[in-house]
Write a structure and sequence with these properties.
There is one protein chain. By secondary structure, the protein is α/β, with parallel strands linked by helices. It has one domain (about 5-210): Rossmann fold, CATH 3.40.50.300. Helix content is about 45%, strand content about 20%. Strands 3-7-2-8-9 form a five-stranded parallel β-sheet. The protein has a four-stranded mixed β-sheet with strand order 1-4-5-6, with helices on one face. A hairpin with a 4-residue loop joins strand 4 and strand 5. The chain is globular, with a radius of gyration of 17 Å. It starts with a strand and ends with a helix.
């Protein structure tokens, strides 16, 4: 039977949801905001990437939903949520460093659209946030995972800016990827995330939308801190 255990859960407090497409700076601002507030940082995308990593290594085609779903009962995930990074262990092995390759990134978007995967991971995410004092970032945090989150943000940015940011990340990580390919991959991921039938990428009605195209990271975080202060 599949299981997930969570380490380092926080005490009761605010749940802050940060959603948006790739390349808008969600992870960066979420980590900084968690550090400023002393909250836990939950990278929900890492959970989907972990499943995608297992699918890839099992040699299963992501289009084969039944085969993907069959992996879940035999999957054990452990996630240690810290203020700066979440470490993911799959069946006892730390795979954190293998979750952001171009292959896993592309596959995660496909796998995350599979209803069985989303249903399997939904209670996991909610369990992590049950105690509050958490910054959760992803694509459906404010709409489906934590619809009653205390504060919601939806980050967006120009597609060219997002592709440039993503390409820099890949190059810095040692991946030889052409910019045009990075942009195509990002656009394809956007289309899949926005059109999937289960929990599509859309802003929550009560989310504050922030365009990060030309905003420095510190300015975005300061803006969020002000919103948190106003809520407290």
């Amino acid at each position: 039977m599949g299981e997930i255990s969570i380490a380092n859960r926080g005490k009761r407090g605010l749940i802050i949801a940060i959603d948006g497409p790739a390349g808008v700076g969600k992870s960066t601002v979420a980590r900084l905001l968690a550090l400023r507030l002393g909250y836990l940082y939950l990278d929900t995308g890492a959970l989907y990437r972990a499943i995608a990593w297992k699918v890839h290594n099992a040699g299963i085609r992501p289009e084969d939903h039944l085969a993907v779903a069959a992996l879940l009962p035999h999957t054990s995930l452990q996630m240690a949520c810290g203020p700066e990074q979440s470490h993911v262990l799959l069946n006892g092995h730390d795979i954190t460093g293998q979750l952001r390759t171009p292959e896993v990134t592309a596959l995660a978007s496909v796998v995350s659209a599979i209803p069985a995967v989303r249903e399997w991971l939904l209670p996991v995410q909610r369990d992590i946030g049950a105690e509050g004092c958490i910054i959760a970032e992803g694509r459906d945090i404010g709409t489906r995972v934590f619809p009653e989150a205390d504060i919601k943000f939806f980050l967006e940015a120009d597609a060219e800016v997002r592709a440039t940011r993503r390409h820099r990340e890949l190059v810095a990580a040692g991946h030889a990827v052409h910019f045009d390919q990075t942009k195509r991959d990002l656009t394809g991921r956007d289309d899949r995330d926005r059109s999937r039938p289960v929990a599509p990428l859309i802003p929550a009605p009560d989310a504050e939308r922030i365009d990060t195209s030309s905003m420095p990271v510190e300015e975005v975080v300061s803006h969020m801190m002000a919103a948190v202060a106003a809520r407290s």
